[in-house]
Amino acid sequence: MSVTEAGATIWLTGLPSAGKTTIAYELAGRLREGGHRVEVLDGDEIREFLSAGLGFSREDRHTNVQRIGFVAELLAANGVKALVPVIAPYADSRAAVRKRHQSEGTAYLEVHVATPVEVCSVRDVKGLYAKQAAGEISGLTGVDDPYEAPDAPDLRIESHTQTVQESAASLLALLTERGLA
């Protein structure tokens, strides 16, 4: 890695079980093979270690996104590709993170992993959709809590129509096009 390598935050937003984390880890491997410094800021790990104690109210979700955005910007400002597979359901929270990056002069890309809720509920990686359907939980993003899809993401990935490898390749192509890979 050169000292002048540009870092960037690549935020993958989408519904639970959309494929955000899987795509992020596939992309991370490809970037590392290319000699890039990469960190994946997994939403579940962040909730456990950085945002423990926060609930799922709109205010707590906003706080969580801002904390993640702060850490991602620090990493990106120091030459790391920060891959952030985090739902971030509210447009204003994502806009605040983008604004922070812009004010610091740090590259920020928003990627919408646009998988329909019907597909996500079948995948149900963590069993959240089944728990919601059984009445065991409420406030599930995209079901009984809002998800505000990005109007103009830098890239939209439809993970239900392409493989993880194809999704990562399209994201790598965007990074290359923007001079970030």
Automatic annotation (TrEMBL):
Function: Catalyzes the synthesis of activated sulfate.
InterPro entries referenced in this protein's UniProt entry, alphabetically: APS, APS_kinase_dom, P-loop_NTPase, Sulf_AdTrans/APS_kinase
Reactions the enzyme catalyzes: adenosine 5'-phosphosulfate + ATP = 3'-phosphoadenylyl sulfate + ADP + H(+)
Protein name, UniProt field: Adenylyl-sulfate kinase
PANTHER family: SULFATE ADENYLYLTRANSFERASE (PTHR42700)
EC number(s) on file: 2.7.1.25
Organism whose genome encodes this protein: Streptomyces violascens
Pfam families per UniProt: APS_kinase (PF01583)
Family of the protein in this entry: Belongs to the APS kinase family.
UniProt keyword list: ATP-binding, Kinase, Nucleotide-binding, Phosphoprotein, Transferase
Functional pathway: Sulfur metabolism; hydrogen sulfide biosynthesis; sulfite from sulfate: step 2/3
Domain APS kinase, first and last residues per copy: 7-157
Binding, ATP: G14, L15, P16, S17, A18, G19, K20, T21
ATP-binding among keywords: yes
GO molecular function, one term: kinase activity
Lineage: Bacteria, Bacillati, Actinomycetota, Actinomycetes, Kitasatosporales
